[in-house]
Amino acid sequence: MCKHILTVLLAVVSSGALAAWVDVGNNENTTIYVDPSAIQREGNLAKMWHLTDFKKPNRDMGEPYLSAKDQFEYDCKDAKSRRRASSQHSGNMGGGKVVYSDSYTSKWKPVPPDSGVEILWKFACVKKRAP
Fold first, then answer.
1. Of 27, 45, 58, 66, which sits most exposed with the smallest number of CB within 10 A?
2. Do 73 and 82 touch, CB atoms closer than 8 A?
3. Domain residue limits, the chain
4. Coil, helix or strand for 122?
């Protein structure tokens, strides 16, 4: 019974049903969202999930997907970022079937100025949130 309850809770959390996604930027092809309540800070580091919602289906090597969730870790002091985990979803806003997922840590890279990564870095590291 406990195993079933845990499975249901994990499905709800991973589906993004509890996420309060906030639009932080968009263009003609995509909209990027973050969940400010889920930002984790420890010293100069911050971890944050962002969701990229696509207007048209994308395909890397597998099935088409309309959204992707990525967890990045940011070095707030030295303006660097690295990817920690990723998933691609057949539906918009992280919905539908998971068509790909992985959890590996990429190497640290500098945050490029005037980029989407810089917007996310600032949101994770600089943006003031109400207590």
1. 27
2. yes
3. 19-125
4. helix
CA 42 – CA 101 distance, rounded (Å): 26
Q: Which residue blocks in the chain are alpha helix, DSSP H?
A: 2-15, 116-125
pLDDT at 85: 96
- Say which residues have a Cβ less than 8 Å from residue 10's Cβ, sequence separation at least 6: none
pLDDT surpassing 80 at residue 48: yes
Work out the end-to-end distance of the chain between its first and last CA atoms, rounded to an integer number of angstroms.
Answer: 37
pLDDT band at 9 (very low <50, low <70, confident <90, very high): very low
- Indicate whether 18 pLDDT > 80: no
Architecture of domain 19-125: Beta Barrel (2.40)
At 127, list the tokens.
Answer: 């943006």
CB 30 within 8 Å of CB 55: yes
Instruction: At 11, give phi and psi (nearest 5°).
Output: -65, -40
Contact between 49 and 69 under an 8 Å Cβ cutoff? The reply is yes
Q: CA 16 to CA 45: how far, in whole Å?
A: 23
Helices (H) and strands (E) in the chain, counts: 2, 8
